[in-house]
Design goal:
The protein has 464 residues and is α/β, with parallel strands linked by helices. It has 13 helices and 22 strands. The strands form 5 sheets. Strands 1, 2, 3, 4, 5, 6 and 17 form a 7-stranded mixed sheet that branches. The chain binds flavin-adenine dinucleotide. Residues 9-15, 32-35, 38, 41-43, 46-48, 51, 115-116, 143-146, 164, 185, 274, 278, 310-311, 317-320, 322 line the site of flavin-adenine dinucleotide.
Length: 464
C-alpha cells in the first residue's frame, strides 16, 4: 500500500542506524539524504571522524616533537598540512564508501536523493534540483540532525569568523586564534590548532572548562594541564559581539566591557536544529521551546507513526546517542516493547590526554540529596602510565555511600575514552565498587587505575 514500511529522513548517525536495523528486521526501507556524498551525516563528514583524523595528526606531531623523551632522535619534524587534510579526506571517503557499499546497499535499503518535507503523516515530498516527487511510508523516522548555529551578533563570515565546518578545512594555520566555548568542540579544536602552532585563547562563559562536568577540581586539572601546553583560558567571560576590523583582525567584545583582538575566531558553541521548514508542525509533530522534537521513550512524536532520533531530540548531541535511538526505534516499529534510556551515555573529548565522563559527579549527587564516596587516583600512580611516560591526569569514581553502587566516572588521562567504558557498564548493570575492586585486571595496564580507584574509595588501595 505504501512505497516503504520505513522511511528515514537524513543519512547521519541516527538515520543510518535506524535504516540498517529496520532492514535487518525485514522492513522495506528508504533513506533520504539531500547532501551529495552525505552518507554518514555530520559525524562522518563534518564531525566525529574528520576531527579525530586531524587530532591524530596533532598527537603524532607533538609526540615526534617530544621524541627525545623516549630516547628517539628525530632530525626534523615538520607539519605538512596538505598531507594532513588528504589523510582526513581519505578517511572520510573510505568510511562513506564502506557505509554505502558494505552496509546500506547489501541490505537492500533504497537511497533517495533530495530534500524531504512532510506533506501528511504518510507522505513526503522530495525535492532534488528541479525534480519534485512524493513518496509514501507506513512509518517515518526524522533524523535531520543539526548545523553550526549562526549567532547573529557573532557575524560569522566563514573566513575569519568561522564555525567547525570551516575549521576542518583550514589550509593555513592562523598565528592567533580565539575559540569560543570550552566544551568538547572548543577544547578539541583549541588543542588541535595550538598543537599546529596557533596561539590559542579559549573563551568560556561558564566558570570552568567542560561546563557539563560539575567538578571544579577535575576541571582545574584539565585547564592547568592545557595552560602548560600554551593554551590560554578566559573562563567566566561572555562574548557579546564579534566583528572584523579594518586591518583584517577580528575584534571580540566581552559583556564585561573587555575587548580581545585576534586573527581568527572559531565559534564552537551552539548547534541549530534541522526541524524548521520540513513540515513537522504542519502535520502535527510538536516541537518544544528549544525547537527539539518532542518524543516519548520509544522515540514516537506526537504523531503516532512518525518518530524522531538524534540531535533534534532530547539528550546529548552525540553520535552514539543517535545510533542507539535509531536501533530502539527500529525495534519499536518491528513490534518490540523496548525503550530508550538516557541514564548512562558516556562521552569523550579527544584532546591528548583524553577526557571522558559518564554518570554524575559527587557535586551532582549532592544536589540530588545522594550521599557519596569518591575514589580518586593520579595517573602518575599507574605503572603502565609511568612506563608510557603518560602520567598526566586523574580519575574519579563516584559511588553511593549506602550500597556502594557506582554512579559516576570522570577521567582525564591517557586512553580515558577506553577506560570510561568499564565504569559505564558498571553503572548500567548496577555494579558496586567491590565488584570492580575485586576483579583481577591485567598488569601492567592503564585499566588497573579503574580498579585501584575503586579500591581507593573503599580505603584499600596501595596508593592512599
Ligand atoms: C566538529 C564535530 C565533532 C563531533 N565529534 C563527535 C564525537 O567525537 N563523538 C560523538 O559522539 N559526536 C560527535 N559530534 C556530534 C555528532 O556528529 C552528532 O551528534 C551526530 O552526527 C548526530 O546524528 P544525527 O543523525 O542526529 O544527525 P546528522 O549526523 O547531522 O545527520 C543528519 C542528516 O540529515 C540530512 N538532512 C537534513 N535535513 C534533511 C532533509 N530535509 N531531507 C533530507 N536530508 C536531510 C543532513 O544533510 C545530514 O546528513 C561532533 C559534531 C561536530 C560538529
Amino acid at each position: 500500500m505504501y512505497d516503504y514500511d520505513v522511511l528515514c529522513i537524513g543519512a547521519g548517525s541516527g538515520g543510518c542506524a535506524s535504516a540498517m536495523r529496520s532492514a535487518d528486521l525485514g522492513k522495506k526501507v528508504g533513506l533520504v539524504e539531500y547532501r551529495r556524498n552525505g552518507t554518514g551525516g555530520t559525524c562522518v563528514t563534518r564531525g566525529c571522524i574528520p576531527t579525530k583524523v586531524l587530532l591524530q595528526s596533532a598527537r603524532v606531531y607533538s609526540e615526534v616533537l617530544d621524541a627525545k623523551k623516549y630516547g628517539v632522535v628525530v632530525p626534523e619534524a615538520r607539519l605538512d598540512l596538505k598531507a594532513v587534510h588528504q589523510k582526513k579526506s581519505a578517511a572520510v571517503a573510505g568510511l562513506k564508501f564502506g557505509l554505502d557499499n558494505m552496509l546500506i546497499k547489501p541490505r537492500g535499503i533504497a537511497r533517495i536523493s533530495g530534500k524531504a518535507k512532510l506533506i501528511d503523516n504518510h507522505s513526503v515530498e522530495i525535492t532534488d534540483g528541479d525534480k519534485v516527487s512524493v513518496i509514501t511510508a507506513e512509518n517515518i523516522i526524522i533524523a535531520t540532525g543539526s548545523e553550526p548555529a549562526l549567532v547573529p551578533a557573532f557575524n560569522i563570515d566563514h573566513k575569519r569568523i568561522i564555525t567547525s565546518d570551516e575549521a576542518l578545512n583550514l589550509m593555513e594555520i592562523p598565528k592567533e586564534m580565539i575559540v569560543i566555548g570550552a566544551g568538547a568542540l572548543g577544547l578539541e579544536f583549541g588543542f588541535l590548532f595550538s598543537t599546529f602552532g596557533s596561539k590559542v585563547t579559549i573563551v568560556e562563559m561558564m566558570p570552568h572548562v567542560v561546563p557539563t562536568m560539575k567538578d571544579d577540581e577535575m576541571a582545574g586539572v584539565i585547564s592547568g594541564y592545557l595552560e602548560n601546553t600554551g593554551i590560554k583560558f578566559k573562563c567566566g567571560s561572555a562574548i557579546s559581539k564579534i566583528s572584523v576590523t579594518g586591518n583584517e583582525r577580528v575584534l571580540c567584545e566581552l559583556e564585561n566591557g573587555g575587548k580581545l583582538e585576534t586573527d581568527m575566531v572559531l565559534v564552537a558553541i551552539g548547534r541549530s536544529l534541522n526541524t524548521k521548514g520540513i513540515g513537522l508542525e504542519e502535520v502535527g509533530v510538536e516541537l518544544d521551546q528549544k525547537g527539539q522534537v518532542v518524543v516519548d521513550d520509544q522515540l514516537r512524536t506526537t504523531v503516532p507513526n512518525i518518530f524522531a532520533v538524534g540531535d533534534i531530540t532530547k539528550g546529548p548531541q552525540l553520535s552514539h546517542k543517535a545510533q542507539k535511538q535509531g536501533l530502539v526505534v527500529a525495534e519499536v516499529i518491528a513490534g518490540s516493547d523496548v525503550r530508550m534510556s538516557y541514564d548512562v551515555i558516556p562521552s569523550a573529548i579527544f584532546i591528548h590526554p583524553e577526557i571522558a565522563m559518564v554518570g554524575i559527579t559527587a557535586d551532582d549527587a549532592k544536589d540530588e540529596g545522594i550521599e557519596t564516596i569518591v575514589g580518586k587516583m593520579q595517573f602518575s600512580s599507574n605503572e603502565k602510565a609511568m612506563a608510557m611516560q603518560k602520567t598526566a591526569g586523574m580519575i574519579k569514581v563516584t559511588a553511593r555511600a549506602d550500597n556502594h553502587k557506582i554512579i559516576g566516572g570522570h577521567i582525564f588521562g591517557e586512553d580515558a575514552s577506553v577506560l570510561i567504558e568499564e565504569i559505564a557498564i558498571a553503572i548500567q548493570k548496577g555494579l558496586t565498587l567491590e565488584d570492580i575492586a575485586d576483579s583481577i585486571h591485567a598488569h601492567p595496564t592503564l585499566s588497573e587505575i579503574v580498579m585501584e580507584t575503586c579500591k581507593n574509595a573503599l580505603g584499600k588501595a596501595f596508593h592512599k
